Every structure is written in C-alpha cells, then in structure tokens.
Amino acid sequence: MVETRSLSVQSVLFNNAPQDISRAGLALANSVSWARQAGLVGDWTLHLGDCSDVPVFDDGHLAELLSAVTQVGGRLDHTVFGRNLGSAAGHNALATRSTSDLLLILNPDAKLAPDAVTALARRVDGTVGMAEARQVPLEHPKDFRQSDGVTSWASTAAALTTRAAFDKVGGFDSATFFLYCDDVDYSWRLRLAGLDIVYEPAAAVFHDKRLTVTGDWPAGSAEVYYSAEAALLLAYKYSRPDLVRDISLRFKKNGEPLARKALAEFERRRAAGELPDQIDHMHKVGQFVGGNYAKHRF
Length: 298
Known about the structure:
Blueprint: E1 5-13, H1 18-37, E2 41-50, H2 59-70, E3 74-80, H3 86-95, E4 102-106, E5 111-112, H4 116-123, E6 128-136, E7 158-162, H5 163-169, H6 182-192, E8 196-206, H7 221-237, H8 241-254, H9 257-272
Parallel strand pairs: 1-2, 1-4, 2-3, 6-8
Antiparallel strand pairs: 4-7, 5-8, 6-7
C-alpha cells in the first residue's frame, strides 16, 4: 500500500490570464482533497513561479487562490522571478523551495479531474519514477504497454514524479532545454537510471488544445522555434549524429525562418562548446520515430 506523502505542485506562469490560473487552482485543490481523503497525500503546497514581464496576479485573484488552497490544508508559495526562465529552469527553481516527497509538474491552466491526483499518487511507487495524466480533449498518441502503462516519456502538462527520482538525475536539464523536450529528456534520464515512466489514463486533465478545421495542430512562433531547437539538441544529446545531420539538412533546405534560426543557434552552441554531454550511446532509451520521441498509437 502506498503511504501518505507530502506533495508540491509546481506551475510556471508566463503571461497567463489570472482567471485561468484561478480556475485551474480550484480544480487542483479539489483533486488534492480527494487524495488527502484517500490517505495518499498529507502536507501539500502549490508553488507558482511567475516569469512574466508584468506579474499575472493582482491581490484579488491571489487571495481567491490562497483561500481555495488553504481550505483543503495546503499552502501557497507565489514567486515572481522577474524574467523568463523558461520551463526547465523555472521548475528547477521551484523545486528548490520545498523538500516534499512528491512533485506534481502542472501546466498553469491545466484543470485536473477530481480523482486525478489520487490515480497518479497510486502509480508513483517502487520503480515508477513518473506517472503522466491523460490529456483531454486531445489525448497524446504515444504508445504505452497495455498491461502496466509503461511508456517512452511523460508530458509534464500534468505528471507526478518523486523527489528521490528528481534529485537522482539532477532535475531538468535547463542548460540545454528552454521550453520544449525538457520533459522528454527528464523521462529518458529517469529510464537510464532504472526507473519506469508510466501513462495513467485514469488520471484525466483538461488541457485546452484543439485542432483546426483541416486537422492541423495550431502552433505559435515560440512553439515552432523552440521545438525545432529542441529537436536538434535532443538528437545530439542522445548520440544520434545521423539525425542531427538529417534535421540540419531539412532545416537548411525546407525549413521556415524560425527553423533556420534554431539551426543557427545550434551551430553557435556547437562552435562555443555549449552543447550537452552525449549520453545513451547504446540507444537504450532514446526513441526517434518519424519525428516523434515514441512510437505512436495513431
């Protein structure tokens, strides 16, 4: 039986609408209350790190969120960073502000189902280093083992990891990844350390992603740029020079301006000796399948 453990919930804010964060906070507080009633979570804190130029919260919205958290036995820790640290560095900074047994990495506007924290807490035990929630309305298409949910990597739109696992691999690689693929890399390093990554479909989280009428996934300029940059960095770090070459050629020949900009930054890092140390030389965990980082179910 999984014991009662302390929990830190971490969200990095960047120019979010305060009402969205408040609604997500209300859903979070309710979900944590269910886990507390089940005896899975004890002391807990919501850590918000604001990377916005202008802080997201005014006193009114912050008071509303504080009330929701404290009503179910939690604490609120609100930090204004004053600069855009990015996802990886932001979460690393928030992780230093607690010593909790569990860390729930959560998109700031993601709304957890009432039983989501309960379902995730039940999975993160033993050899499981991180458990990922099921995103709705668009479920991530990564393949997973039907018997136990073991999968290649976990999206930190909503994922629960242990403090022991986080500390074992040194948290997120913020020196390499700014916004995208920090969760893929974290997952793969956990796997190299002998831990499992699991997908838990019983834990639902509403993550407001939608398709266009043509079936495309709309992407903003930041997503296009940092996804392109991360693709090169991940392939390099996980000892795939063939992929680095192929991606570079594709960006040179067919890439849009932001992809070519990402390639230029990668080459700048290479020339400056700022690329990460290469790992997984035997390709035990790194999966690169058709431009994705896992085999997809559909």
